Inverse folding.
């Protein structure tokens, strides 16, 4: 299951001065309005906005508020170290001075290798920048994001303001229910590691004219990596995962795919209206729709298998100039009747039980369930020395987040089964720890009438009841997702 960021993943905390927050928000709104009004405009003099004290203050707050604030870069400093040794105001003054006089140089990112989910044995390489580099990347993102957002297609949902994984799943469910049942289930091979720097900078230059900002972005791309073995490697391609700017740069690179696949959907295109799409289908021509979440995407096709294979060839040709290619092993053409796995969900067109009607259903995938069970097993081992208070708090955190992500799927039975699994794991752990037999367990965890009580720690923390989570259909929003920087129109 991917880590689903909240809308934009950047909540401002109360420690930021209101004036700084308001100034940055107004700056972003202006940039976005100008970008929307003039699609061909190239923005100059953005460097002063990056170096603005208000921008750096908000950027530092976002870096300090991330969970990665505790992870040091190659200089060994965390955000807490910076605040303790220098103080945030002095640190930002020095950083701004180095940016203004041109002496700022990004340091190599510290590599950290983590296993990929699913037990495949493969690893994901993360790059952890220094605190100073993270703040500058956050400042660049504050300035560049409202500009490039004006050009991003509505079919892209990953790491964008007010968009989330459930929107992408709802999009697949909606179009799958309206005849788009052939699917190109695609996987880009090592996307973040292979993006061509020259092609990416060419995409950035379409909107950014300020050479100082362009040089700063390029410097981060070329900063290099300090491996876990202590070797320094140059980064000739790719944008390291783990940096604040990396998801935005990846979206800029992959927007070339959005533009190509969705070009017929633009006003005046051959698929721009339902009438035109129906006309194409009557003539035997296919229609298609892209749904992308970062580097994970599917193309839904209203046509035949051969039509979907043709789309696959087009997608490969579009990605090649960006230095990317589809993974032959993981890219497949499927019918929705077989089902596809996307962002942890299993989406399938199947017959409704007890009827002859067919619908598109969204289930929880097998991999997230295996991952959840593995975490529960690790916490509830019979020989575990962890306190019951810690175990229950950690289980509650995991189950609350997991159920909140999947509560829009057909999940009621799964939630009940998993709740039963967690309950039995805790019961067996307590039996082994305290040498209680079944009679002792019932005496402690049932009422006088024989009803089971929630498992509760000494501090009053009770086990979260996942089976009680309300399961609801996520509403498909389509093109009605609100824009962060444009005012919401008032109803007449």
């Amino acid at each position: 299951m991917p880590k689903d960021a909240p809308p934009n993943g950047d909540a401002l905390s109360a420690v930021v001065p209101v004036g700084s927050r308001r100034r940055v928000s107004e700056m972003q709104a202006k940039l976005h309005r100008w970008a929307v009004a003039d699609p061909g405009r190239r923005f100059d003099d953005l460097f002063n906005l990056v170096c603005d004290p208000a921008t750096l203050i908000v950027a530092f707050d976002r870096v300090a508020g991330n969970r990665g604030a505790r992870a040091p870069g190659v200089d060994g400093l965390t955000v807490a170290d910076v605040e303790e040794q220098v103080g945030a105001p002095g640190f930002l003054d020095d950083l701004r001075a180095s940016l203004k006089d041109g002496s700022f140089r990004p340091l190599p990112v510290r590599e950290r290798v983590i296993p990929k989910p699913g037990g495949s044995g493969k690893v994901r390489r993360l790059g952890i920048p220094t605190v100073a580099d993270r703040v500058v990347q956050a400042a660049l993102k504050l300035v560049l994001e409202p500009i490039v957002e004006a050009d991003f297609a509505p079919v892209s949902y990953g790491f964008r303001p007010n968009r989330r994984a459930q929107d992408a799943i709802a999009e697949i469910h909606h179009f799958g229910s309206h005849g788009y049942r052939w699917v190109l289930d695609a996987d880009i091979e090592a996307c973040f590691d292979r993006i061509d720097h020259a092609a990416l900078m060419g995409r950035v230059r379409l909107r950014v004219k300020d050479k100082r900002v362009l040089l700063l972005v390029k410097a981060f791309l070329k900063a290099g990596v300090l491996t876990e073995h202590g070797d320094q490697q140059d980064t000739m391609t790719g944008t390291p995962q783990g940096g604040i700017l990396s998801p935005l740069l990846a979206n800029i690179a992959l927007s070339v795919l959005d533009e190509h696949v969705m070009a017929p959907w633009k006003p005046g295109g051959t698929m721009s209206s339902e009438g035109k799409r129906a006309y194409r289908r009557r003539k035997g021509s296919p229609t298609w729709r892209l749904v992308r979440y970062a580097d994970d995407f599917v193309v839904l096709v209203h046509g035949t298998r051969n039509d979907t294979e043709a789309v696959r060839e087009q997608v490969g040709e579009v990605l090649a100039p960006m230095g990317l290619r589809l993974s032959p092993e993981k890219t497949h053409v499927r019918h929705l009747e077989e089902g596809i796995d996307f962002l942890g969900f299993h989406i399938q067109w199947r017959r409704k039980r007890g009827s002859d009607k067919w619908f598109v259903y969204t289930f929880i995938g097998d991999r997230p369930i295996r991952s959840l069970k593995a975490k529960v097993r690790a916490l509830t081992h019979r020989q575990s020395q962890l306190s019951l208070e810690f175990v229950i708090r950690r289980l509650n955190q995991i189950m609350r987040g997991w159920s909140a992500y999947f509560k829009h799927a057909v999940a009621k039975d799964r939630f009940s089964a998993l709740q039963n699994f967690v309950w039995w794991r805790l019961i067996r752990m307590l039996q082994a720890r305290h040498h209680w037999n079944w009679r002792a367990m019932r005496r402690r965890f049932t009422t006088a009438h024989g009803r089971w009580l929630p498992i509760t720690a000494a501090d009053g923390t009770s086990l979260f009841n996942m089976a009680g989570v309300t399961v609801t259909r996520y509403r498909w929003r389509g093109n009605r997702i609100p824009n962060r920087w444009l005012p919401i129109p008032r109803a007449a």
Notes: Residues 154-191+247-364 form a domain with the Alpha-Beta Plaits fold (CATH 3.30.70). Residues 38 and 231 are 46 Å apart (CA to CA).
